[in-house]
Amino acid sequence: MYFSWTDIDEIHGDHFKKAAPVQTSFNDLLGTAQLTTNEPIQSLELLEIANEPYYWINDAQLYNARTGQMKNGISKEEAQQVANRYMLNDLEIAKIQLVDSVGPHHEYRGRPLPAYEISYETPQNLKAYVAVENGAFQTVRHRDWRWFDFLWMTHTMDYQGRDNFNTLLLRAFSLLGLITVLSGFVLWYISSPSIRKLKKKIK
Asked: How do residues 153-178 score in pLDDT, each as one tens digit?
């Protein structure tokens, strides 16, 4: 019942974010032939970090799109500017810390590491995450999301990583539930007075 009555957009933290970040137009960008990369370019994405254009190449290398200089991750100040593009202007930042590793139950599990965890002064213990490697805004986490995540874990019965709904435990309980329902129908058929009367009429 909780999942059916919950607004999934609020769980995702959309009410803490701007409707859409302002997209900056850039001119005079370098071509790929001018970059000092030795590997063939299989994928390229234009990113904005602290009002500067960057090429994210092959999901591994970050280059300034104007100077061609390779960038090894972003700074804490740049992560704050990235978050400011996405989060509401009236949110006040409490602290920013670097996250190098997380456990299987951490709210940032399954996403690029290292990352900057940006905490805000809110009753909901709001946090935003920005990837260090390419400065991409990752996700928002808050109190209601954490409750949802916990209840989802109990719903899927995945007590290891919380996201797998094909666990043996869940399959066993679903099979047990099916057997229970079928046995209920059998018991009703055996003990029902209406069925008994019907059998007598047939005889």
From this structure: 776 665 565 565 666 766 776 788 78
